[in-house]
Specification:
By secondary structure, this protein is an alpha+beta fold. The protein is 27% helix and 24% strand. The chain is elongated and about 90 Å long.
C-alpha cells in the first residue's frame, strides 16, 4: 500500500506563530485570572469571618452564652480568629463578684475551648496586633480591646458619625505581587485591590461590605 506523500508537518515559522499567540493570550488573561483568584480568596475569608462573628453573637441573642468574645490572635501563624463564650452560671457568678473580670481579656473565665476558629491563610487585616470584641445580649457588656479598640473612624453609607467597630480584610499580596503586612488605610485611599470589611454593633448586628474603589458597598 502506498503512503500518502502529501502529508506535511508544521514548519518552524508556523510553530513560532502559535507559541507567540499562546504567549499573548496568556499575558492578557493571567492578570485578570490572578485578580479574580485573589478576590475569591479574600471574599471567602470575609464570609468565614462574618459567619464566625454572626454565629457567636446569635448565641447571646438566644441566651445560650450571656457573654462572648471574638479575638484576633497574631501570636499564631497564620493569624487566627476565635470565638469563645461564658456559661450562664459563670456569668452570674462574675456579676455577683462585682464583674471585674468581665473585661474582654484572656483572664476572663471563658469556656474550656473556643466555640469556633478560623485560620486566615493568605489574608491580612488593617491591624497588625491582637485585638478582641465582646458582646452581651443587652449590649451593656460590649467592649473592644487591643488594636480593635484603636481603629480610625470610617464613614460608611454616609452615616453622620464615623464607625470604628469593624475589621478590614485584604490579600497578603498587592496587585504588583508585593507582600504586605496590613491592609491599606481606606480613609483617603483609592485602590482596585479586593478589600472587604466586617462591621458590627454593640447590639449584635453584623454587616459585610466591599470597597468598590471609592466607597464601601454593602453585600
Amino acid at each position: 500500500m502506498l503512503q500518502d506523500q502529501n502529508i506535511k508537518g508544521l514548519t518552524l515559522l508556523e510553530v513560532l506563530v502559535v507559541v507567540v499567540i499562546i504567549g499573548v493570550v496568556s499575558g492578557v488573561g493571567y492578570p485578570k485570572f490572578s485578580k479574580w483568584k485573589k478576590d475569591r480568596e479574600v471574599r471567602v475569608a470575609s464570609e468565614k469571618i462574618f459567619n464566625l462573628v454572626n454565629t457567636i453573637v446569635a448565641q447571646t441573642q438566644r441566651g445560650y452564652y450571656p457573654y462572648v468574645q471574638v479575638k484576633v490572635d497574631f501570636k499564631k501563624n497564620p493569624t487566627t480568629l476565635t470565638s469563645s463564650g461564658m456559661t450562664k452560671d459563670k456569668f452570674g457568678e462574675e456579676l455577683n463578684n462585682g464583674g471585674a473580670r468581665l473585661n474582654c481579656s484572656d483572664t476572663v473565665p471563658w469556656n474550656q475551648s473556643p466555640i469556633n476558629s478560623y485560620e486566615a491563610n493568605k489574608i491580612v487585616f488593617d491591624i497588625e496586633d491582637d485585638g478582641a470584641v465582646c458582646f452581651s445580649k443587652d449590649g451593656k457588656k460590649y467592649l473592644l480591646t487591643g488594636k480593635l479598640d484603636s481603629h480610625i473612624n470610617l464613614f460608611i453609607e454616609d452615616r453622620p458619625k464615623g464607625k470604628n467597630d469593624y475589621i478590614i480584610i485584604c490579600h497578603e499580596r498587592d496587585k504588583y505581587g508585593k507582600k504586605r503586612t496590613s491592609c491599606p488605610a481606606m480613609k483617603n485611599t483609592s485602590t482596585d485591590d479586593p478589600v472587604y470589611l466586617i462591621e458590627w454593633t454593640r447590639f449584635g448586628t453584623v454587616n459585610k461590605f466591599k470597597w468598590d474603589g471609592n466607597a464601601w458597598r454593602r453585600l
